[in-house]
Amino acid sequence: MQKAVESNSHTKRFGQIHTQPYSFLVTQLVSSPKHWQAEIEGVYIESGWLDISVQDQTYHLKAGNFMFIPEGVIHSYLKKADDGVVHVLKFLQEHVIKHTFANDTKTAISRMYKNYFIAESLPAMGEIVHQIQEADFGDYNECYLCSKLTELTSYFLRYPSLIVMEKSRGNEDTSNSLRSTFDFIHEHIRDGITLEALANHLGFSVCYCSRYIKKKTGMTFVEYVNASRISEAETLLLETNDNITEIAYATGFSSVQTFNRVFKQIRNINPTEYRKKRKGKK
């Protein structure tokens, strides 16, 4: 199981469940271009606001809102308040189901997390997020973490009026080609990845691959790769003490100058100022 907490500026990684990596993450939000994940993704707005795009529809979340997105659904984080605090939880449905005994409850949980939804929160629910975030994670704490996640889930079942918007995931294109595209880019984000390499991986012509990326992400191949690299760089700037040069090369940039230029193009601030500004708020 893993935990990445920007507010404490450290990352922890843990063992495995049933030969699969623990897929449990709690982090403060950094920007992210369109992506999909194999886990349920929950977003909690502690303060400020967040604009998020899910299946090409934009939602405005305010302080106290939760939003849960099923696995395999394409989404991106657009804008958030400069001084806002947004937490992201990623988990597998089995983390909740395995600590539930009644079949009716298991069915209700599966049905709820099949769609994406926005919900209001009660004070205790935000506290649960902090309890998970502040826990001493380890190989023997799985029960505690899953029980907290189950407790959070139970509020939505007990108080359905908290859910203010629920929408079916529909028939979005999460084909093997699209998933392979995102996976290949993120697996090779630190390498000198090229459009030609991606096209070859997918079995597409370079021309078709270029159009495909633009259609699915709204960005050119280079724009998407750069946005993904900057998203990774933001995490490293906040979670590590690595210097700018180390982060530039760790995220696949060929030079510090290129890294600084692209970072400022996308974030309107240079990496050093970004780190100082964000860490100064902790």
UniProtKB/TrEMBL annotation:
InterPro entries named among the record's database cross-references: Cupin_2, Homeodomain-like_sf, HTH_AraC, HTH_AraC-typ_CS, RmlC-like_jellyroll, RmlC_Cupin_sf, Tscrpt_reg_AraC-type_HTH
Listed transmembrane segments: none
Superkingdom of this protein's organism: Bacteria
Keyword Transcription regulation among record annotations: yes
GO MF term (any one): DNA-binding transcription factor activity
Domain named HTH araC/xylS-type: residues: 179-277
Alphabetical keyword list: DNA-binding, Transcription, Transcription regulation
Database matches in PANTHER family: ARAC-FAMILY TRANSCRIPTIONAL REGULATOR, HTH-TYPE TRANSCRIPTIONAL ACTIVATOR RHAS
Protein name: Helix-turn-helix transcriptional regulator
